[in-house]
Amino acid sequence: MEKTKKIGFFKRLKMAIFELENYIQFISEKSGKAIFYSLKLVIILSFIIVAANAIFVYAKYNNPTNYLDNIVPNFVYQDSKLEIDKDDLTTDEKKSTAEVMKQLSPSIKKIFSGQTYSKTDLMQYVQENERNIVIIGVAVVFIEGIFDLFIFWIMIAILTSFIGWIVLKFLRIKMKYSRLYALSTYASTLSIILTVIYTMLNTFFGVYIDVFDYLSMLISYIYITAVIYMIKSDLIKQQLELIRIATVQAQVKEQLDKEKEKEEEEKRKKQEEPQGEKENGSDEGSDKKEKEKSDGENNAYDDEPDGSEI
């Protein structure tokens, strides 16, 4: 059995984005390799997201304390009630944080039950425990990024495989779903990378594209459709090559059969020639004996005396 050629991660990434004609190599692999590939890429992308967030925070706000001061509105938690200063909701970040704080209000009541807590207390706590908070924040963002991206990729791959299934039915090609899902995973690689880039641009610089989600999905659909058509073309080429090989083999066999028949015919003729010569030799011997006998009888008649002699 022929062993599957080992493909490294970065080679696999390059093939997934730029070498659609080589997707046929993924068909012979187990679907687990495609899942493991997607998990690896998700980890790398999550690390990039964490690094980008850290660079952005320190570049714009110098430290996490200033960052929280700019995204957390003024608030006071007193008598089991959370009061947010509406006049301080001047930015989208503070408005988003206020919504999150309202949703977390029941948990806040359990933590600060019977206590008074304000934004000033929060800033002081963050400043005193900045290092631990940064470590915890990085770990949370990293793990959340892995989980969100991996689930998102699975959903994209499933939707892409549905489009691939339609194309397979149209072209009358049979393929196991596990192989189709693996191809869909690779086909959606570019969409995942573009989604991560767009998310960071939107978060850091406010870039917004209204139809980006549809465009990223469309890229995956185009990839899987092109890949299936290329695989169809490769299958046709393989069938033509098999037909050509079978034709050549038939011609060679026919030629060998003719040569074999010719050799058998020559061998048969050689076997018949000695028998003919033997028969001719025996005929000549019998004629010679008859001639000698005839001559002997004639000589006997010549030796007898005739009546004129005394």
Structure, described:
This protein is mostly helical and 310 residues long. It contains 11 helices and 3 strands. The chain has helices spanning 9-18, 24-27, 31-61, 64-71, 92-103, 105-111, 119-128, 130-171, 177-187, 189-205, 212-303; strands at residues 75-78, 81-84, 117-118. A 3-stranded antiparallel beta sheet has the order 2-1-3. Strand 1 and strand 2 (81-84) form a beta hairpin. Helix 3 runs antiparallel to helix 8 (130-171), helix 4 (64-71) packs antiparallel against helix 7 (119-128) and helix 8 (130-171) crosses helix 11 (212-303). The longest helix is centred in the last third of the chain and has 92 residues, at 212-303. Mean pLDDT is 84; it is low at 304-310.
Strand content: under 5%
By DSSP, the count of extended strands is 3
The dominant shape is rod-shaped
Helical percent range? over 70%
Give the overall pLDDT as a whole number. 84
| Span between termini | 115 Å
Strand order of the largest sheet: 2-1-3
Question: Which residue ranges are poorly predicted, with pLDDT under 50 across at least 5 consecutive positions?
Answer: 304-310
> How many whole angstroms does the radius of gyration measure?
48 Å
Structural class: mainly alpha
Order of helices and strands: HHHHEEHHEHHHHH
The largest sheet is:
3 strands, antiparallel
Q: Supply the number of helical segments.
A: 11
